[in-house]
Structure formats: structure tokens, C-alpha cells
Amino acid sequence: MTSTFTVHAASGYEQLMGRWSRRLAPKFIDFAGLAGGEKILDVGCGTGSLTFELARSAELAEIQAIDFSPVFVEAARQRNSDPRITIGQADAMALPFADHAFDRALALLVLHFVPEAGKAVAEMRRVVRPGGVVAAVVWDHYGGMTGMRMIIDTMAALGESGRQMRSRYCFQPMMQPGEMKRTFVEQGLVDVTEAELMIRMDYADFNDFWAPIGAGEGPLGRYMTTLDAAEQKRIEAAVRDAYQAGRPDGPRSFANVAWACRGIVP
């Protein structure tokens, strides 16, 4: 499996998205449900935002966490001290687990980076027992991420490559209303429910907001690495102006909405 998410260092991902995925994880767990004694699979665990929140949320029997990125797997392993948790490298579209091995399979901010999201959902269904739960959540890049839209709209206003990047970013798989729900139904899940989850992303100042993107992390950071130094500086200055909005640099807070979907294995 290839992923459309770029990661250079776990610390950069933490500043870009890990701290916010930790804020989203409890809301997602409440939506997906959880019960003591269950065996849970975390698909695309990243640095462990969902994995370790699961361990705190219930007396689970077992948590298996997988990610395609060796950078993420190593970072999560270094954080882990819970004997119930096992973290390994694996492909979401070819999970290395037996049929019906888990009570629930969950994916936090993953499916939009999987080349064939439907195949990943099918694999999650395969490894969950009948009556168990498959659930996933992804950001609404087009209509629900005000801070990121501020960046990509600024980039788009400055050139054709920015407009092309915006089109790719806003319409990644699974991000449109009803899209995940249709995929869950197509893969044979029943009682499928879709909901919106909202958090706020709070930044100390512009550097806190921009640093991981400027360092090349994530989709927007990857785009920045394709530009020459002069264009990078032009974009950074324009985004800084948008962030500050005519006021002194300092704290800013942005609302962010994610689509969540849950289905039952028949």
C-alpha cells in the first residue's frame, strides 16, 4: 500500500496533527462504542493517539495497532508500556489477522489516505466478528477545516499549482457527506450511522501553526517542498498575513469538523 500522507519525523506529525487527533480520539471512541474485555484493532495508528486513548477508556483484553509507516510504528512502540497493546507495520488493505479476530476495528484519520478505501473497509469487516463494530473518522477538508482551508485558499490564490493542490486536498476519498456511509453499506455492513464530530485546533502563534508545514510534513508540507525558495517565502508571508488578519501575532483557534461512520458486521 502507498499512502498519500507524507511524514518525515514523528515530532513533526505531532505538531501538525497528532495533538489534534488526540483531542478527537475520545469523541470518536464515544461514537464507535467500547466495552470491557473486548479485542480492538486500531487501523492506521500513527503515533498512537487512538491506541493509547483506547487503553485508558476501558478494561480491554487486547489492542492491536497497525500502521504502514515505519516512522509511526517506531514512535508508537517507544511510547508503549501497556502489555495489552501490540504495534506492528501492516497494510490496511491486507490486514495480517484472521477472520473474526476482533470485537471492533477502528480507523482514526486514515481512510482518506488509503489508495483503495473500500478495500480497507472490507478488510476491517473481515477481521471483526459478527455483531462487532467497524468505525472510521476522517476530516472534512472541504467544509470543515477552517485553518487548513485558510492555507490552501491562500496558496490557490497565488498560482495554478496551488489551485490544483486545493482540488486534490479538498476532495480526497471519504470526505464528502454520505461518502463513507455509502462505502460501509457497499462493503456489507448494516445499521450504518454517520455523524459529525467537532474539535478546535488552538495555536500559540503563527510559528506553532506553520512550522510543520514549512518543514514539509503532511500533504500541504509536501506541496511546499515542490516550490522554489522564493515561492515558499511568498506563500509563507501570505499565509502569515491571513493567520494574523491584521492583528498582532499570537493565539488563534479554529473549528474543525470530521465525518464519523459506524457499521455492524452481520
From TrEMBL:
Q: Which UniProt keywords apply?
A: Methyltransferase, Transferase
Gene Ontology biological-process annotations: methylation
Recorded protein name is: Class I SAM-dependent methyltransferase
Q: Which organism is it from?
A: Mesorhizobium vachelliae
Task: Note the Pfam families from the entry.
Answer: Methyltransf_11
The molecular function GO annotations come to: methyltransferase activity
Top EC category? transferase
* InterPro entries in alphabetical order: Methyltransf_11, SAM-dependent_MTases_sf
**Start and end residues of each Methyltransferase type domain:** 41-135
Assigned EC number: 2.1.-.-
